Amino acid sequence: MSATTSENPDLFTSVYKHFRRLSDTECYTEAYSIVNHPTVFQQCPITISIDLDPSLGLQPISNWSLYSCKFCDGLYFLSNPFTSTGQRQWIDRCINIYARQTKTSVGDNSNNENLSRIRWATLGYHYDWTNKIYKQDDHTKMPDELAQLCKIIMQVISSSTGCSMMNAEAAIVNYYHMNSTLCAHTDHSEYDALTKPLISLSFGNAAVFLIGGQTKTECKPSPILLRSGDIILMTGSSRLCFHAVPRILSDPLLNDILYKNIDDNDEVCWSYIHDKRINVNVRQVYS
Ligand code: OGA
Ligand code: MN
């Protein structure tokens, strides 16, 4: 691990600060998207076909678009594979089921009375933030539909790219307000399973996701624009790369995707998500 020195500057933090200072419009222009920066992505053909359970809220796999990221080895971007209704269902689960846990940033939130303040909830093997470990005996069942979703995603990506499969054993659900950030870090507590991919689902407002190298000094991080429904897969060497979220961006498209044809239940979700972003970060913990 190389220390940060004047000859070896922290390239990650300078890019992080750069995005902190930009306007939303500048972030939308600079952060990589398929439309604005097609040359940094390489499309991966998908040939597998799988029958999908409608409860997963997915479009037929023949409509999915998967890309490898030329700027980061092993990193894949799956452009929103959900239907609009599917996105609303996942947001509803994040708000009304996954936030109602005993292990959250606001303590026991079983009755959801602290939803407006919640920052994270853990599912499956619960992450111990203080000691940075998972414990075999601190476990609740992974929600079936989330495990199912991850299995389908892994089958598709693995058949298309040859990456290894991942059992969804633990998830961190991050709830971001418009001014929330996530500082540069690596996820390395899954020590039995660091060769297994990590799946990251985005819902709600957009974000700038920075991904760099395995140290903060070896390269400048690249910015990716993540919009509602988009999925990031960290496989191979990218699994251990530094990453961060310097910005949440108000997304004008969210209204169209999520607010059209809503029913009463969706109205409650909308009142939460219209100024939030939710990230579901799923990992395998044990080999
Ligand atoms: C994490 C993480 C990224 C995101 O939870 O470890 O890196 O997109 N989340 O919110
Ligand atoms: Mn992370």
Automatic annotation (TrEMBL):
Alphabetic keyword roster: Dioxygenase, Iron, Metal-binding, Oxidoreductase
GO terms assigned for molecular function: broad specificity oxidative DNA demethylase activity; ferrous iron binding; oxidative RNA demethylase activity
Binding of Fe cation, residues: 185, 187, 243
Alphabetical GO biological process terms: oxidative RNA demethylation
PROSITE patterns xrefs: FE2OG_OXY
Cofactor(s), names only, from the UniProt record: Fe(2+)
Cellular component GO terms, alphabetical: cytoplasm; nucleus
Entry annotated with the keyword Cell division: no
Cofactor info, note text: Binds 1 Fe(2+) ion per subunit.
Fe2OG dioxygenase domain span: 167-286
SUPFAM superfamilies given in the database record: Clavaminate synthase-like
InterPro entries: Alkb, AlkB-like, AlkB-like_sf, Oxoglu/Fe-dep_dioxygenase_dom
Xref: PANTHER family: ALKYLATED DNA REPAIR PROTEIN ALKB-RELATED, NUCLEIC ACID DIOXYGENASE ALKBH1
Protein name listed in UniProt: Fe2OG dioxygenase domain-containing protein
Organism: Adineta steineri
Higher taxonomy: Eukaryota, Metazoa, Spiralia, Gnathifera, Rotifera
